[in-house]
Amino acid sequence: MKNIIVMGECMVEFGLAAEANLYKKNFAGDVYNTGIYIKRCVKELANVQFLTAVGDDALSLDMLSMMEQESLDTSLVYQSSTAKMGLYLINVDDEGERSFTYWRDTSAAKQVVKFLGDDGGSQRLEKPDVFFLSGISIAILSENDRQKLWRFIFELKASGTKIVFDPNYRPTLWTSLDETRSAYAAAFELADIALPGVDDHMVLYNAKSAEDVADFLEQYAISEIVIKNGSQGMLLSIDGKRHYVEVEPVKNVVDTTSAGDAFNGSYLSARLLEKSPEQAAMFASKVSGCVIQHKGAIVNKAAFDQQLTDFPM
User: How far does the chain reach from its first CA to its final CA, in angstroms?
Assistant: First the structure.
């Protein structure tokens, strides 16, 4: 059985419910969302471990229960006695675009590298087939912990694990563009697969197009680059060879929350099950298109299973 580790933060999410001025509690986070979509796609054909840290409070226990309901492996979820999960409010406008308010400065997930180091470091990770992390995964860490993480990931890569990185830039989590660029350079140096979006590279590297993103990333030894560009489709650079993959525009956009996370999860699922990058990209575009037609980061299981039936991998 294939094994994938996804590393990041899960937070308590409060989004507006159907009733006016009421918020509904849920759990979400970019890598957490990706992990759920991977597991829903691969089912029993792969194990998905979530590497994070939470608290020992009731909300953290609720989140662990939710993970188990989604069949995620929680053996790498550490529990802090001194910190709790982060929290955020989400609002969605009439066009499906999101805005967020966060309370995450003391999030337990910031301690994950310390917990991992105390628990055996990279040896505790048992050489997974794939290790996935995002820009948010590293933004919440201290510089010292980032350096420790790079060493852990280097050891994984040397043992044959494929390293996957989605830049997923959130400016409020960084002190400066220089800090972000330095951290991302370290991640790109280690990555075998990169899943960037054009919008992030416009801000970080003054990119004007998907071709500019490819020009920038091809300087690194990244064998598989999938550049997401919304309704304009995707540019794939596989071992330096480029081609575009078109997508079918979605007319009924309800909520863009987790569109990129769903894309990442379904793309990696297809690659884990040995589909080609092109096949994986087409499958992922269909899944992402389904997700943005529903409210919330995680689409209900019945709707998602119907999507997989109508548009199988």
Answer: 18
- Tell me if residue 261 is catalytic: yes
Residues 56, 200, 261, 305: which is the catalytic one?
Answer: 261
pLDDT in tens, 56-111: 999 999 999 999 999 999 999 999 999 999 998 877 677 656 677 889 999 999 99
Helix or strand run (H / E) with residue 183: helix 177-190
Report how far apart, in Å, the C-alpha atoms of 305 and of each of 260, 291, 312 are. Answer: 19, 12, 10
Residue with tokens 């569109």: 259
Q: How far apart are CA 268 and CA 193, in angstroms?
A: 10
What's the CA gap between 184 and 68, in Å, rounded? 32
Residues 6+ apart with CB under 8 A from 112: 7, 51, 52, 53, 78, 141
Cα separation, 264 vs 224, in Å, equals: 13
- Give CA–CA dist 202/118, Å, rounded: 38
Domains of the chain plus CATH, in order, are: 2-310 (3.40.1190.20)
The Cα 34–Cα 46 span in angstroms is 14
Angle (CA) 81-85-86 rounded to 5° is 140
Q: What is the C-alpha separation between 94 and 266, in angstroms, rounded?
A: 27
Calculate the CA dihedral of residues 209, 210, 213, 215 and round it to 10 degrees: -90
Amino acid at 219: Q
3-state secondary structure of 243: strand
